[in-house]
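Submission checklist for the structure archive. All mandatory fields must be present; incomplete records are returned to the submitter.

[x] Identifier: Glutathione S-transferase omega
[x] Organism: Rotaria sordida
[x] Residue count: 239
[x] Sequence attached
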Amino acid sequence: MTSIPKHLKSGSECPPLKEKQLRLYSMHFCPYAQRTKLVLAAKNIPYEEININLVEKPEWYLAKNAPGQVPSLEWIDNNTKEIRFIPESLIVSDFLDETNPENRLQPNDQYVKAQHRVLIERSSNITTPFYKILRSGGKEGCEDLNKNLKTYEDALNNTYFGGSKPAMVDYMLWPWFERFPLLNDAGFQLNGDGKLPKLAAWTKAMEANENVQKVKVPLELMKKFMNGYLQGKVEYDFE
């Protein structure tokens, strides 16, 4: 992977796009961008990472992607030489899996794939109380998060949701679980009451995964970013 570490913002210029190089538009602390980075790592796909300031979004990026969200992929088609662009974490991740068939992350069984997609699509049941806990300092959201995590505890019948090794569903869910330690000071701890032992074991297995380690953001750095985010003073670039 090559990268431009600083987050580009309004007034910047778009770096030239090179042929035969896949570009990922990202943000260092974004869980949605981390989804795609996990897929890229799992499939050993080389890429260039361009980080975007999501508060002061570059005009050139808004011209490519009006919502200004990350992640998105961009590349030059080998045959037509036209620029290709795809946004949205789930769409980008599926595209990478389908166009790079080695080490497929989606199950071949379409019913199992559908079950996994339900878990992914309903992940807002995790993310909503997660952010509610952060914003309220633990005064709200803890009960809802534990209740909603029970669905995932019940769905976990192996080391990973994907079976004996991580699948797409594991990588799509993981970024928020990686951030759960941010909730410790607010009084939430995964499996704190002992009722989510399978999820606790899954978390340990995922933490040890080499692809997770490749794209992990250090907790102290994540805390700095999140503190600024909660105070309305977002900083993207730390020395």
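[x] Structure attached
Curator remark: The mean pLDDT is 95. Residues 2-104+223-230 form a domain with the Glutaredoxin fold (CATH 3.40.30.10).
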